[in-house]
From TrEMBL:
Belongs to the CapA family. Keywords: Signal. Residues 62-78 have a biased composition (Gly residues). Residues 48-61 have a biased composition (Low complexity). Pfam families: PGA_cap (PF09587). InterPro entries: Capsule_synth_CapA (IPR019079), CW_Biosynth-Accessory (IPR052169), Metallo-depent_PP-like (IPR029052). This is CapA family protein. Transmembrane segments: none annotated.
Amino acid sequence: MNTRRVRIMTMTAFSPRSRTRRAVLATAAGAVLAMPAACELTDAQAPEDGGAAAARPPDGNGAAGGGAGAEHGSGARGRPGVPMLTVAATGDFLLHDVLVQQAAEDRRSQGRRGYDLMPMLAGIKPVIGAADLGICHVETPLGRREGPFSGYPAFNSPPQIVDAVAGLGYDTCSTASNHTVDQGEPGVRRTLAALDAAGVRHAGSARTAEEARRINLLDVKGVKVAHLSYTQDTNGIPPPAPWSVNAGLSAPRILADAARAKAAGARLVVLSLHWGEEYRHEPTAAQRALARTLLASEDVDLIVGCHVHVVQPFERINGKWVAYGMGNQVANPSANDAATHEGVIARFTFTRGPSGWTAAPAFTPTVVVPGPPIRLHALGPGSDHQAAIARTSGYVRSLGANVPLAPDANPSTVR
Ligand SMILES: [Zn+2]
């Protein structure tokens, strides 16, 4: 079910795109809106299917949103009239050489030159496309379409990844990582230009001081959602400008930004954090302490994490959720430990009740299979990758949260 109706807004003028799935509108920053109290949720609460939809609340700014009218979800398990939206977030794209070669091969098989990453990643499209808000992470700077490309330690990745990001149904990507400034200011500029050209919003890096101050505010089924992004470090590379990347996980700074987002009208604030110790399934003490500090604030509603390349647990804190690490979305399936080929799509269903928003978590395990061809699969309950599902489930639940596997968005395509 692809019933998403995402309307994207910006606080400055923004040209509408002609994509049928989304409509874009420009709006001024809204008035300060009351923030509901911290979410309450029982761990046993079942997630809603990503395609479900409920009545859309009044828009509040009077702008028409290209068919974004109220939806009464067929198949929705939410109560009619109860605002509900689904968020799906994923981990790192690590575009090692073999993946770039596969993208060239897939393009060649269409009789064309260049790179096409969509065939490799299409297995997760039913899950991302079914979510009302899809959040990806672009860990590495993007190069020119014709290359040259490079891998670790100074990444320069094919910008064609953004074509796939848009095609998979992502709406916004975090770009703050330890590799953001691997290619200096030109890398930051190319990455954000590629996302802009594809109509995908972004947070975490910037070309100007003004862009860095701007809150990445999206309209999801009539609900304003802010997506912000920060990284713990830049591998010791000094950012070309103070605004190039949101580097350093300063709780006061992040909370100040989250408060600004709420003041700009965001009902929900989602943080993408690039943090943790690589290849370690357990969150560090620093991750756990920061999650506690941030989720203690009513200005932060959800944290999704990247960087460690393996799956880390979900934890419920102050009635809200953190997914510490979602693993790699895609990485070389024949290098490193198998755990780096396994990831999760973290899925959260937000429902607004009388006492505010509540979030129900779920996850879809993913695995990169070496093929050939190399392909990313989303794993459903009937999958033949049961060992991967068991491992991933163990990591997700390792802090005791009984997070369920998400129902298949589309059982015929989820493997
Ligand atoms: Zn990283």
